[in-house]
Specification:
221 residues, alpha/beta, three-stranded parallel beta sheet, 5 helices, 30% helix, globular
Length: 221
């Protein structure tokens, strides 16, 4: 199984590291054709503590936490706004969880797929379309309109304002994150080169190689 490592490299310092480890370098920029979706979730292989055998799991709770932390960091922005509070995080987390629930994605690995009959009448299994930051934003808009709690009003208003820059429907300047994924991290060492992304903040729970505004499509640390 080995250890997968993924670095977010804002300064272009780690290209040689990826190459020396047999990894890949991926450039992210407003003009790049490379797309990552922070909501994308994959099956994981873990070792069963009792049997010692490998088993396939789908850890939705961890993914919700990862995506929530990424969106919280994006909402804070480069100014480290004090307007982002635990209440803000709660709203983000609830909306993220609802996105996966709406797709019927649970901790059951089979919930990640849809089954259908192909032209040869053979049962086919395809991965479901994933939520995106755009679909999350639409859900946030709906929840804001339905909100009746006064304490939540400012948080909804703030989130809708600062996150609009990431939404393709509104021609946001950072809307290149608002698409379904077109790459997979298939190497053990992957370096994402960041170009023309000026807002940079630390997002990992542990030490990372770069500080930027978004979470990767899988595990970072």
């Amino acid at each position: 199984m080995g250890i997968e490592s993924l670095a977010l490299d804002a300064e272009g310092e780690y290209s040689i590291v990826a190459e020396s480890l047999g990894g890949i370098n991926v450039v992210l920029s407003p003009n790049s054709k490379t797309v990552i979706n922070i909501f994308d979730i994959e099956l994981e292989t873990v070792k069963d503590e009792i049997t010692g055998k490998d088993r396939i799991v789908l850890n939705v709770e961890n993914k919700v936490e990862d995506v929530t932390q990424a969106l919280v960091t994006m909402a804070r922005g480069s100014t480290r706004s004090q307007d982002v509070t635990e209440l803000t995080k709660q709203i983000i987390a609830e909306t993220v969880a609802e996105e996966y629930a709406a797709k019927g994605i649970t901790n059951d690995p089979s919930s990640l797929y849809e089954t259908s009959m192909d032209k040869r009448n053979i049962l086919a299994k395809d991965k479901k379309d994933m939520p995106t930051i755009g679909s999350w934003y639409k859900r946030l808009e709906k929840k804001a309109k339905e909100n009746k709690i006064a304490d939540y009003q400012f948080q909804y208003s703030y989130l809708l304002k600062v996150m609009k820059q990431y939404i393709r429907e509104y021609d946001g300047q950072m809307a290149y994150f608002d698409r379904t994924i077109n790459i997979r991290t298939i190497r053990r060492s992957t370096i994402y080169k960041l170009r023309y992304i000026t807002v940079r903040r630390k997002i990992c729970k542990t030490t990372c190689t770069a500080d930027i505004t978004f979470m990767d499509l899988g595990k970072i640390c």
